[in-house]
Design goal:
Amidase signature (AS) enzymes, 3 domains, 16 helices
């Protein structure tokens, strides 16, 4: 695995001091993208806009202008998030000519801070899957174990960061599409609280749950990115001795593979020895409420995707996208959306269930005086490319099982952070944290403190 020359702040400081130019950083990133093309992480690479953006930063420095906190830092953008001048195809054939004129708001904020888009990242077609392997392009390979999946749907972003093509990137998340590939690739990923970052410029199909989420090598670096995207300053790191964390042994832990459970048990012991207070508790109604909230949201894409496609230039229909896809699985999903539109229930019906789920997740934290839940980020590690069914402790499962830990937070609108807990048998294992709504900065500070122990 190849890593960037330095972290996010190291790059920005070197560019600001004139020790490196933004153009040098951009050319180095483009070179890494070419050498690491075997990962299948990027769908669009175009040196011209990359170098133009980098040279503009260098001219600003020469003119004495103050540079932003991410000056010259390369980043990648998932292919369903708009970056002006780049295609936004969502890795589906019908959108190959879609070139938005404006940046998504989150991309614009990062660029205003000096970051440079170096490419669009491959995703599972239309964000409708968990492998990021599409039949009309090479599969996204996990840089840690190239025969394994990178996860999805933001697998290209995770792979680009884990391989060292760029130090950070943007993904999108409906039910785990940021923290799951982050865990499988051994990096950090934040599914933020709902409405923490603007979603303008994201091709959405689940507006009740869709968010844009940052991914980086560590939660420490995510603190800086989150501050730029949300406004404000990064939260200071917390000493672990001042942190109480809640451990729900049932559901989240019982549903994980023994390999994951045993590894993370050792990780938890290390955190306790470092001073963290970890308190076990029962989850109450969380499992049932999560199932009910998920069922109430199931048909939301039936109209939401059609509305998103209708706003493109030129507009598209779900039928046109279905006709162009080369994936039988995606065609079937789109067909299900079209059929489900006729039976769509008002989305407002899901709100009371989602609020009850949120209360059920937050109540134990309040009762215990805890800052976050600790859960396995995924119930198992990355499986080989081409795997069709999962096996968790010899139990048959489908790919949706990867969302076991992440989906409750998504349905409730709460932040979920994945940090890299280490590797077992050469495969990364992620530790997940669920926090309170709006307290993403604190969650990242806790995650960064845990990383320093692990």
């Amino acid at each position: 695995m190849v890593q960037p020359q330095s972290g996010i702040l190291g790059i920005a400081e070197a560019v600001a001091r004139g020790e490196r130019t933004a153009e040098q950083e951009a050319r180095a990133a483009l070179d890494r993208a070419e050498r690491l093309a075997w990962t299948g992480a990027l769908v669009s690479i175009d040196p011209d806009p990359v170098l133009r953006a980098a040279r503009a930063i260098d001219r600003a420095r020469t003119a004495g202008e103050r540079l932003g906190p991410l000056a010259g830092v390369p980043f990648v953008v998932k292919d369903n998030i708009d970056a002006a001048g780049w295609p936004t195809t969502a890795c589906t054939p019908a959108l190959q000519s879609n070139r938005p004129a404006r940046d998504a708001v989150t991309v614009a904020r990062l660029k205003a801070a000096g970051a440079v888009v170096i490419g669009k990242a491959v995703m599972h077609e239309l964000a409708m899957g968990g492998t990021s392997c599409n039949p009309h392009m090479p599969p996204v390979r996990n840089p840690i174990a190239p025969d394994r999946i990178a996860g999805g749907s933001s697998g290209g972003t995770a792979a680009a960061i884990a391989a060292g093509i760029a130090p950070f990137g943007l993904g999108s998340d409906t039910g785990g599409s940021v923290p799951i590939p982050a865990a499988l690739c051994g990096i950090a990923g934040l599914r933020p609280s709902m409405q923490r970052y603007p979603t303008a410029g994201l091709l959405m199909s689940n507006p009740s749950r869709d968010v844009i989420g940052p991914m980086a090598g560590s939660a420490d670096e995510l603190r800086v990115i989150d501050a730029v995207m949300a406004g404000g300053s990064p939260r200071a790191l917390l000493p672990l001795g001042s942190v109480r964390l809640a451990l729900p042994r049932t559901y989240f832990w019982e549903g994980a593979d023994e390999t994951v459970r045993s590894f993370l048990s050792v990780v938890l012991d290390r955190l306790v020895r470092a001073g963290a207070q970890i308190v076990e508790f029962e989850i109450g109604e969380v499992e049932r409420l999560n199932q009910e909230a998920g069922a109430a949201l199931r048909n939301e894409p039936a109209t939401a995707l059609a509305e998103s496609l209708s706003r493109l230039e030129p507009p598209l229909s779900v039928e046109a996208v279905q006709a162009a896809t080369g994936s039988p699985a995606i065609a079937e999903r789109l067909g299900g959306m079209l059929a489900g539109a006729a039976a769509l229930r008002p989305i407002e019906e899901s709100l009371p269930l989602r609020l009850r789920l949120r209360d059920a997740l937050i109540a134990p934290l309040d009762r215990l005086g805890a800052a976050a839940w600790l859960v396995p980020a995924t119930p198992l590690t990355a499986v080989p490319i081409g795997t069709e069914r999962l096996a968790i402790d010899s139990r048959d499962a489908d790919f949706f099982s990867y969302t076991r830990s992440t989906l409750p937070a998504a349905n409730a609108g709460l932040p979920f952070l994945t940090i890299n807990a280490g590797t077992r048998d050469g495969l990364p294992i992620g530790l997940g944290m669920i926090g309170r709504a709006g307290e993403d900065a604190s969650l990242l500070a806790i995650g960064a403190a845990c990383e320093r122990v692990l």
